[in-house]
Amino acid sequence: MYVIVVYDVNVERVNRVHKLLKTYLFWRQNSVFEGELSKAQLYELEMRLKRIVKEDDSVLIYIFPGKNFDLHVVGRDKSPVEMII
Fold first, then answer.
1. Beta bridge partners of 27
2. 3-class state of residue 31 by DSSP
3. pLDDT at position 82, please?
4. Quick check: is 7 in a domain?
5. Known InterPro entries for this protein (predicted)?
6. What mean pLDDT do residues 10-37 have?
7. pLDDT tens digits for 61-81?
8. Which positions ≥6 away from 64 have C-beta within 8 Å?
């Protein structure tokens, strides 16, 4: 499955969340990662995130059954999709 992860966490935890997501997904831009994960990898990632994030943090995981989605960029594309897909 294809996932996009968007996070807004306290500055004290930003580096830990970024480092964790980097081990599973491709960095897209500030606070955004995307890539292909198996169900097991997604479950593992969610469990590891739960150990880091606190109640006032937010991590959104958008799940797509495949790579079928449209990307519309407004402004500068910081990480071209060609590098990811």
1. 33
2. coil
3. 54
4. yes
5. CRISPR_associated_Cas2 (IPR021127), Virulence_VapD/CRISPR_Cas2 (IPR019199)
6. 95
7. 999 987 777 776 666 666 655
8. 1, 2, 3, 4
CATH of the domain at 34: 3.30.70.240
Q: Which residues contact 56 (CB under 8 A, 6 or more apart)?
A: 10
Please tell me whether 8 is known to bind a ligand: yes
Residue 57, domain member (yes or no): yes
Amino acid (1-letter code) at residue 19: K
Range of the domain at 14: 2-64
84 has a pLDDT exceeding 70 = no
Q: At what angle do helices 14-24 and 39-52 cross, to 10 degrees?
A: 170
Number of structural domains the chain divides into: 1
Q: Which residue has the tokens 């980097």?
A: 22
Reported as type and span, the H/E element at residue 58 is: strand 58-64
